[in-house]
Amino acid sequence: MKLLEERIWSLFKRHWQQTLTHWSVFFSFGLCIAFLGPTILDLRCQTQSTLQQITWVFFSQQFFLLVGSSMGGLCKKTPVFSLSALLSSTLIISLVFAIIPLCHHVAVLSVAMALAGTAMGVIDTIANLQLVKLYQRDSAIFLQALHFFIGLGALVSPLVADPFLAEDSCVLGANWTTNASSSSDLQHLRSSLAGHGTALHNISQYPLHTEGVIITRVSYAFWIMALINLPVPAAVLALMYHERLLPCFMNSPRLLDRDSLSSTSPTGDSGHGHGNVFGCCNLEKLRGRPASFFILHALGGAILFITDGIIGSYAGFVYTYAVSPPLLMGHKTAGCLDSIFWASITAGRLAFIYLSYRYTAPRLLTFSLVGVMLVQCMLLIFYTSCVFLFIGTCMLGLCISSVFPSVLAFTEDILDYKGCATTVLVTSASTGEMMLQLLVGSVIHSRGSYAFLLCCTIASFIGFCLFLLLLYVQRIHTKCHTDSSINTDMTEKPRTGGS
What we know:
Largest sheet: 2 strands, antiparallel
Strand order of the largest sheet: 1-2
Radius of gyration: 24 Å
Number of domains: 2
Keywords: Membrane, Transmembrane, Transmembrane helix
Strand content: under 5%
CATH architecture of the largest domain: Up-down Bundle
CATH topology of the largest domain: Growth Hormone, Chain: A
Shape: globular
Protein name: Major facilitator superfamily domain containing 4Aa
Subcellular location: Membrane
Number of strands: 2
CATH superfamily of the largest domain: MFS general substrate transporter like domains
Number of helices: 19
Distance between the termini: 44 Å
Order of helices and strands: HHHHHHHEHEHHHHHHHHHHH
InterPro entries: MFS_trans_sf (IPR036259)
Transmembrane segments: 20-41, 53-74, 81-100, 106-129, 141-161, 220-241, 293-319, 339-357, 364-383, 389-410, 422-444, 450-473
């Protein structure tokens, strides 16, 4: 244990600037992913659009986040390209924050959110990929910390926006005072829209006007968030300067070439992993791979498709479930559930930084996925208890928080850092978060709010079964890899003896 601690500390001291920069980039990611829900009604007023029209910006952000994740995985992963992509993406996020107050049409706002979504997707893939390359077999601890910073950014964003949100209708007209939505109605709408605009069927009865005098101060919130985010691209630029990756240093020796990002690799071969242009699509490298190699990619992606889908669905619909029969919670009380869920995820990732140091990824994943199943079953059993809904929400956030970084570290380790696991897993997680929300939303619409818990419970059991299958395929893959290594050694020995 002491040797492990010394090795990890030594690696961190060697790569501390790269690590802290990537952590700060994920703070920017979290800041951008969480601001839309609380501010959507003020943005509706700003663009003078209907609720159905403004919710397209949610889809725009989610869809292009998926596009950005794929783009980040398909392009080359040299240090100069990766850091340039991160610099551009974080600058785009600050730029989008700054120009959102100038978007007075919903189509223009959707384009801005598409840019932000693409930047977020690129950050998601490249930051995960670079930390895996930096630390490889020791990456689990640093990935947990990386994903903690998403939660931190997601907590800061609503806190910045809250003082500037309109308490009453932000579009005023002379004859609308009797029908205007009250502040409690607006709070209910904001909480319902927390799930990327997927709960529209429950909120159509509230009068929201599109013509009149616009009174909103939400612009200040976006400009403050733009300023908060500016140190992040500055940190990326400082790292590029330190590593001599700026154009003015192109002819001088680079520090990253002397101190390779793959220094902890057991094979020491950076060419087989993530380093080449469109390396994941190179058919030459995929030939001769056993079937288990591809199945591991698929299973890892499927697990994150399910678990990130559960996170997105629970965050999106727990409020709708709480204010519906049989619970019928008050709007303000139910509105706390989403914040408690994200705070629990953030606290869980902070705790799992230490647990990743003490325990292996398979153990942590077993604990997490079993915990998710048990919590979901308990929520089904005590579905009439408001108190247990709060307790269960907190427990679910703690249990599910570590699944993404643990699956990523575990799958890359199985594949010996020679596959495309990071790209496949990040893209699968983004797809699951978008698709499962749509699926659960349609089921709730047709079957009622209780179907929300049932869908999440079924998904958690499917996720655990996929994990057991992943462990089984891992054993087969490890055995095939060991047998091929033995056969290679046996064929090389006669040649050595003959020479």
